[in-house]
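Section 5.1 Outputs to date
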Amino acid sequence: MSDFYCDEVLSGRTKVDVVRETETVLAFHHTRPHWPVHIVVIPKTHVPSLVDLGDAPDTLLPELLQVVREVAAQVTAEHGAARVLTNLGEYQDSKHLHVHVNHGDPKE
C-alpha cells in the first residue's frame, strides 16, 4: 500500500504549507483540499492507522490529539466551526494515520 505521508511529505519530496509542528507531529494544509479549509495532522513516524498503531510509543496518540485540538481550536476561532475525522479500512487511501481538520462544504 502507498504511504503518501512517509514517501512524499515527510521525505520532503512534496512541499507542504505547515500549520503546526512538534518533534513528533506535523500539521499542514492538504495538498489537494476537499474542503475550503482542509488541514491534515500526521505523526512524523509511520503509524498505520488509529486502530493499528504499529510500534508507536504510548505517548504518540496524546501528542497527536493535542495538535489536533490546537488546530481545530484555531479553525473554529477563525471560521466558527470545524470537523475532525480520520478514515479506516478501505476509506483510508494512505495507510499512515492522519486526521483531517476541516471547515466548509466539500469542493466539487
